[in-house]
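Same chain as my last thread, 448 residues:
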Amino acid sequence: MEHRRDFLKKIAVASSGIAFGGSALGFSAKSYNRIIGANELIRVATIGVNSRGKSMSATFAGQKNTEVGTVCDVDSRAIPLAIEEIKKIKPDAAPKPEKDCRKVLEDKSIDAIYIATPDHWHAPLTIMGCQAGKHVYVEKPLSHNPREGELAVEAARKYKRVVQMGAQRRSAPVLTQGINELHQGIIGRVYLAKTWYTNNRKSTFLKPGTVPAWLDYDLWQGPAPRMSFKEGLIHYNWHWFWHWGTGEALNNGTHEVDVARWGLGVDFPTRVSSVGGRYEFKDDWETPDTQVVAMDYPGRVSLVWESRSSNGRKIEGLDRGIIFYGENGSLDTGGDSYTVYDLDGKKIKEVKATDQAADIQGRNTASPSLGMDNLHVMDFLDAIKNNRKPNCDVEIGFKSVVAMQLGNIAWRVGRDLKIDPKNGHIIGDSEAEKLWSRDYEKGWKPIV
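reply #2:
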């Protein structure tokens, strides 16, 4: 992957190329020039900077008229490493180190927060941020459970804050062109989207341990009911435990399903089913390592997501991707590019990006694409300055996330779910409805 400093220099030089998507990106060439020429400084605090957050701290620092004023993490080791990354971009930067995100929210000088915490923190901190008057960029998934997602939407609207979910493909200009062509009928009526994710993850075993000196474990748990510390959980393997994580479906599936839902032009499904399990290893994982989620939407439309967390063989030559099927052919995409085929599988059109937004490393947890990260952050900042909704507004993010959360709920109860297509709620299944929300540690329940 290209070094960040060199990449950002190229982005600055090629500013006219970045505006390729025009208004479809959320900002035109004219408004982009306002970004790089405006004198209003936006001060950002990055929260959760161990891996993805460290990379994105530098991405925010590289934006014009933007300053990373605070770097926050419950892991004292992560903060200086993130500050070091920022200083590679802006040597004179002096972000304030902070352990407690609540103190960040009290800081009146901070205009916006970036959230890359574990999933169980995403929506509560988004809501807290809106209430504190901050704009919010929150990584996917928007929420740990559907009810939190609803509350995050309510908070953004009530407090009139810009909330962007980290679905970076929404800001990819060539992909945006491809989605527009789908909507204009390039393959006729689109009736099915197939999506997938593959990896080669290993087994996970947890064991009782002592909280390390560098970690504030109580604050790491935050809204989640308290559980004893176990070695092997932090910093990544919490993804595979329902108490904190949402499995591969939300960890990675959110990206492809969001693009699929965008291309299909659908909101909430009418039926959701899921099969799979923890098949590769007998270990401590609770979420599936092999899973297929199928969703039917109004208008004779379906969406399917397939995941193999522990078998890295690619599908259609890609470790992750999306195929749209229509009456007259199909359209394939994985990043900021697309290819169109006729009904016999003959390639009839291929469009690729000309900049680094096309470089996708699908299994890179820090930054699969510096180009798309940069474009999505730019869109967020422009939305703040121009008082508009960003490309992946909180409500768009909620609709994509709840689809996969319903897939997990269907898997956990072991049966298909009937869904109200007006709001995504489960119909006539009291056991499944209990998983619409969660219990919280006393004093931490989010309220809008």
